[in-house]
Amino acid sequence: MTSADLNALRPRLPSPLQEPADGRFTRRGVRLLLKRDDLIHPELIGNKWRKLAPNLRAAAGRTVVTFGGAYSNHLRATAAAGRLLGLSTVGVVRGQELADRPLNPSLARCVADGMRLHFVDRSTYRRKTEPETLAAVLRAAGAQDAYVVPEGGSNALAVGGCEALGGELRGQADVVAVACGTGGTLAGLAAGLGPGQRALGVPVLRGGFLADDVRALQEEAFGGPRGEWRLDERFHFGGYARTSPELDAFAEDFERRHGVPVERLYVAKLLYGLVALAEEGAFPRGTTVAAVVTGAPFGG
Asked: Are strands 147-148 and 31-35 parallel, antiparallel or unpaired?
């Protein structure tokens, strides 16, 4: 898979940078920008394009195996890439019990795009990065010679791909904020930003483990820490794939205000967090904050 093959998919790069008028920021002297990575490609959306593109090149036409839960955006993006590029894909899904149930719309989309699903029990899934466990899973899936992309797509190649996101935002904002799942986008974003800029990560999972993961990804990708970044762990709304009526109402209001579709599991939590931080006075007057819109609502 060459760069020319991927460019044939016509990604929109650099992604647009928009400035909505939002009084919750302007009345505090803060400028809000939206980095519309959701507009890069209609199916390989946002950070999924940035993380998958270098891995698809490395796969060089081999079957791609990757991992995710029942509602994984990453699994859907990988399946779509397989269909668009003529690649065989296998999705290893957390939860053996799901094998005997009707597919939810997210997994059904994966299958429609040609992905073969292989369900594993949750204990095995937790150990999937252990070499012996991974080898056993690949054997069971009939994919021993496949190219393996980790859960969420975050590895050294993906971090390098996300470094370009930071490069596109050099000189554009003081703070660049992104929702975080596995940490790869934040690790690359921070590395690509310029002097005086800082990255803010808003984790969508509970657990407090992400800082170590981001540091490890930067070590793997660059040999050490790069850029200035921090996490604010307060806006996960209970954990991955969890929302609340308050978050849904916030997202619907943001959509009405600005005409921007708000993906609930990542982007809504990011934007909610930024509004809360602005109201707390966390951003000095004169600060420009760029929010990376990494995804779009499923089916939207």
From this structure: unpaired
* Global confidence as pTM: 0.93
Q: What confidence tens digit (pLDDT) does each residue in 183-223 have?
A: 999 999 999 999 999 999 999 998 888 999 999 999 999 99
Question: What is d(CA 61, CA 163) in angstroms, rounded to the nearest whole number?
Answer: 24
Length of the chain: 300
Whole-number mean pLDDT of the chain?
A: 95
175 and 167 Cβ atoms separated by less than 8 Å: no
